[in-house]
Specification:
Beta-galactosidase, Chain A, domain 5; 2 domains; nine-stranded antiparallel sheet; 22 strands; 5% helix; 48% strand
């Protein structure tokens, strides 16, 4: 069976064969057929949920995989890696539309976290989430947890970095920097968002910081820097910050940017496990 697709319809008719292979454990039916839906373009994929949904009948195969300290994400719209053996931790080796005329972004580093000397204590990959927990250090006397969560919609795709901090000490001042280095024409949308028009392509990149626990967003050459948290953190308190990095069509970038900002700001805190 050809599995080179992101999205599949679920056929649960009596003629469907028994479930076997790599997807069997995810499906709650004994007999099922995956019917692939072909993509006609980078921004023409139907907007699906990432996990199996009985009501809608969709199943999406994009996911993170973690082997040792090497994490890899792969879909027909984007591939990338994260090396957890060295800080800063972030998206590297990025390929947009790897199955077609791919856009290679080897010089880019997206949603990078500087750990402040702390080392990963725990990490796992689960579907669209890659989770890393970084222990306390002298330079950063607080524990940091980060999820890189994949986003896949019809008119955009990308990743959201979800960060949280807590401490075992009575009182600390947490400060974290999440940065992205990407070549292109940078335009400051407002104090929390930056739009980058990538050269020689019809794809743009939008990075937005949620207002919660956001201090400032700055641009240094081709590097976008989000300064997060700050202030005071007490023992027993958890604080959270969020940053989204999205690829979208350049010819719709301006009109989509405002709506994406509003949607992101109104969105409830994401569930994490």
């Amino acid at each position: 069976m050809d599995t080179s697709f992101d999205l599949a319809m679920i056929d649960r008719s009596s003629s469907a064969p028994p479930v076997r292979g790599r997807y069997a454990k995810y499906l709650p039916f004994r007999y099922v057929r995956l019917l692939p839906i072909r993509c006609n373009g980078l921004f023409s994929v139907p907007a699906p949920p990432f996990r199996f949904c009985e009501r809608r009948g969709f199943f999406v195969t994009t996911m993170w995989q973690l082997t040792g300290t090497k994490a890899q994400f792969a879909s027909s719209r984007c591939t990338c890696t994260i090396d957890l053996s060295r800080s800063p931790f972030g998206l590297r080796n990025i390929r947009v539309a790897p199955d077609n005329d791919q856009l290679v972004l080897d010089d880019c580093r997206l949603l990078q976290l500087e750990s402040g000397g702390g080392l990963p204590e725990d990490s796992y990959a689960r579907g669209q989430d890659l989770f890393v927990s970084i222990g306390e250090s002298e330079q950063a006397p607080f524990r940091t947890q980060i999820y890189w969560r994949a986003i896949n919609e019809a008119d955009h795709f990308g990743f959201e970095a979800i960060l949280s901090v807590q401490t075992s000490r009575w009182h600390v001042s947490p400060e974290l920097e999440l940065s992205s280095r990407i070549l292109g024409e940078h335009t400051a949308v407002d104090s929390r968002a930056m739009l980058v028009t990538l050269p020689s392509t019809e794809v743009s990149y939008l990075e937005i910081a949620h207002s919660s626990n956001h201090n400032a967003t700055t641009i240094d050459c081709d590097c976008i820097k989000h300064h997060l948290f700050g202030g005071h953190l007490e023992k027993g308190v958890i604080r959270r910050a969020r940053v989204r990095g999205l690829f979208l069509p350049t010819n719709q970038a301006n009109q989509l940017t405002t709506s994406f900002q509003e949607q992101f700001e109104r969105s409830p805190p994401p569930l994490t496990t």
